[in-house]
Amino acid sequence: MKTDDLIRSLAQDSAPRMSLAQALLYGFLPGVAVSLVFYSLAIGLRPHLFTLLPDWRILFKIAFPVAVFACAGPLALQLARPRGDPRPLVLILIALLIVLAGAVLIELAVVPPDLWRVRLIGHNALVCMVLIPLMSAAPLVGTLIALHRGAPDNPGLAGAVAGLFAGAFGASLYATHCPDDSPLFVATWYTLAVLVVMAVGALAGSRWLRW
Fold this sequence. Notes:
mainly alpha, 9 helices, globular
């Protein structure tokens, strides 16, 4: 090898590479843009949402999936790295589930039993089950493409958490449109919708994220 070729090869090897976190950001944002366009054209913001925000149920319905989203992204990054330590973030997710259970118990305590079924079923259960996965699809694809740069020890689990990340984003977006505010509805239908996205992520991740 000539000296010039050797120098050029060494320079290419030492060139800075995009971090996994940067790849996740660049992969996720185009999916967000797609979801926001769909949201704007197909459903849109709930009328008078900002005047309704003092209601604790509405605040919780929006804040809870946002908190899960904020935790799931770093967790996906940890799982995409060999020997990553996801335990602190898993503990945060468990704490969030306890908070969700607490909100459900409060709802059961303050709502008469004859209204429990009404609050649980709501008005848009089927719409919720369709729209959350739909608005999570493009972010999930972008997330999986980004995590492909990593080397997860468990590709299926990493894919499932990628689904949690994308699904929580879709749920956060849908929460600003949904007229069903009860924690009973959120704990049931939002959770089921996100689990669908996680299942797709786990299946895709077990194949796409394998190394």
